[in-house]
Specification:
alpha/beta; Alpha/beta knot
């Protein structure tokens, strides 16, 4: 699948881009909130697997009208050329988001709140990062934190 990406910020074309993938999200609220996060932080698109939700009513911006939103069987098939797959998962060998340097082109992959990404997904990602917290976070909150971290660390955020 060919996807045209033209990400802009502060009136100029930005170098690189990022997108988000959700694996079998548990609730419509999480999908809606993740869509909104992708929209406000400037993601190129959002893709998801699974169909455990009915609607994305928490997306009050109707972000799906302003950026591509894909439902796919396998996230691996929608990763753009030369885009680094980055899993966000609580694993012993994961790198802390605090010290992580985001790739210029990244595809961030998030799992469901009631499960993990699993070895099948972890086997094909380049990086695995985690957010150092006392307990695991809600899916939509995790998406927001990762996308904000990318923005805060970018040269274009000043």
């Amino acid at each position: 699948m060919e996807i045209a990406l033209n990400v802009r910020g502060k009136g100029e074309e930005m170098r690189g881009y990022y997108a988000v993938g959700l694996i079998s999200p548990k609730t419509p609220a999480n999908v809606g909130s993740a869509l909104r996060a992708c929209d406000v932080y400037g993601a190129a698109f959002l893709a998801q697997t699974g169909n455990r939700y009915g609607d994305h009513g928490t997306d009050t911006f109707k972000s799906y009208k302003h950026m591509p939103f894909f439902r796919v069987d396998d996230l691996k098939e929608i990763i753009p050329k030369d885009c680094v797959p980055v899993a966000v998962e609580l694993l012993p060998n994961a790198r802390s988001l605090v010290s992580y340097t985001h790739p210029e082109r990244a595809f961030y992959i998030f799992g469901p709140e009631d499960g993990t990404l699993g070895e099948k997904t972890i086997s094909w990602v380049r990086d695995v990062v985690y957010i150092p917290t006392k307990r695991c976070m809600n899916l939509a909150a995790t998406v927001n934190v990762v996308l904000y971290d990318r923005l805060a660390k970018s040269k274009d955020s000043s």
